[in-house]
Amino acid sequence: MVQDMIKQKIAGSLLALCVVASLFNSTYTVSASEPAESVHAIVPKTSKASSKSIKLSWTSADDASVKYYYVMRRGTKDSKGTGTWKTLTKIKSDGKAGGPANTYTDKLKSSAPQQFEYKICTADAAVDTRGQAYRDETDKYAVLGTNIKVCIDPGHYGTRNNNYDQKGKNGEHPYSEAQFALKIGKALQEELKHTYGIDSYMTRTTSRISLTYNGKTYTNEKLDQGNISVRGYMAKTKECDFFISLHTNATGRKKNPWNQPKSLNKVYIFVNSTAHNSSRGIKIANSIGAELTAYNQASGIQSAGFEARSRKKAAGFTNLKNDSYNENGTVIYRKGSSGSDYYGVLRGASAKGVEGMIVEHAYHVTGIMREKADASSDLYQNWAACDAYGIAKGFGFITSRRS
Ligand SMILES: [Zn+2]
User: Fold this and answer.
1) What's the gap in Å between 13 CA and the centre of ligand 1?
2) End of a domain among 87, 120, 146?
3) Residue 278 sits in which domain range?
4) Residues 142 and 158 in one domain
5) Which of 146, 161, 185 represents a domain boundary (last residue)?
6) What is the pLDDT of residues 368-384, one digit of tens each?
7) Separation of CA 223 and ligand 1 centre (Å)
8) CA dist., res. 143 & res. 338, Å (int)
9) How many Å lie between the centroid of ligand 1 and the Cα of residue 173?
10) Nearest 5°: CA angle at 281, between 277 and 152?
C-alpha cells in the first residue's frame, strides 16, 4: 500500500510531463484526424458546491477557438474513472478568450458521498472531441470531483513545540511541531484533491492562525488559549463533512525529553464523540492508524503495531500509556471532566455534529522521527497520503484495498 502510494504520487507529478512528451514521442500514433492537435488541454477545477452538488470551473482561454464545451461525467471505482462517459450539458463559448471562467454545477440526486470523474470536451466547426478518436487524449485532462469537503487543521501555530533551545543529543535535528503540521496539511490538501477529488478548507496556511467566528476574530494565542474550539467550529462554518487536526506527539517524561528511543513511537488517533459513535468515523480512524503504522514501520521509525477499535469501543487515555515504550498505537476516545471531549478542537467539531479526529503521527521527541523529518520531503508527503487514504476509505471512495 505504501509502495502504491509512492508510485501514485510519482505518476501524478509526472503526468503533465508525459502529456507533453507523448505529443513528440515517435512511437505515438497520430490517427487520420490527428486528435492530439484538435484537443484542448482543459483541466477543470472541481469543488463541493453543496451536499447535493459539485461545481466545475475551467478557464476561458480557449473560448476564441471553441464553439461549444461539453461537460462529461463518468463513475469511478477505487478513485479511478471507469465506464462510459455521459454528456451532462453543452455550454456555448462566448467566442472571446479571457473573461470569467466557464462554470457548471452538477446537481446530484442525493447527499450521500459521491465521486465522479469529469472532463471537458469541445466542438468547433470541424471536430467534436467526444468522438472515440479523441478519447485517450481528452481522458488525460480528466479530474475527480466529490460532494465531500474536509476541514484540515494543522496543529498549533508559529514555531510551537520546538527543540530550538535544546543542546547535545536533545537538540539534534531541529524541529517544530507547528511547522511540520503545516507541511503535512498542505500535502494533505493536495493529495485529497488530486487522488480522490475531495475538497478541503485549511484553518491556517501560514505560521499564523486567525479565525473569525460569530463576528469575532481570534489570532494565535487568543485562539489557542481559551478559544481553541473555534478551530473545530470552522468545520461547520466552512460546510465540511469531516475534521482532522494534524499533530506529532510528545512525552511527559522529564529525563532526556527530546532524546527518546524509537520504542516510544506509536500512532494515536483521538476521535471526538461524534466520530466515536459513527461507524464511518471509526473506519476512518482505523484506516489512518493502520496506514500510518505500516508506513512508520517500513520507514524504520517505529516497531510497535496498531490495534483497531470498534464503534463506541475506543481505548481510554492515560499518561502512562502515552509515555510507554513498546506499546501498540490505537484509537482513543478521551473524555474531559465535564463528560464532553477533552480536547478543545474536538469538542468544537462535536458541538457542530462533525466527525473529527486528532492524528498523532509519531513522537517528535524521538531523534529517529526528527531525523526522518529532516532528511527529505518523504515523511510529511507519505503521512499526508496515509491520512488521505483513510479519509477516502471512510467515505467509500476506496473499497477494494487493504486496511
Ligand atoms: Zn500537538
Assistant:
1) 30
2) 146
3) 149-394
4) no
5) 146
6) 999 999 988 899 999 99
7) 15
8) 46
9) 18
10) 130
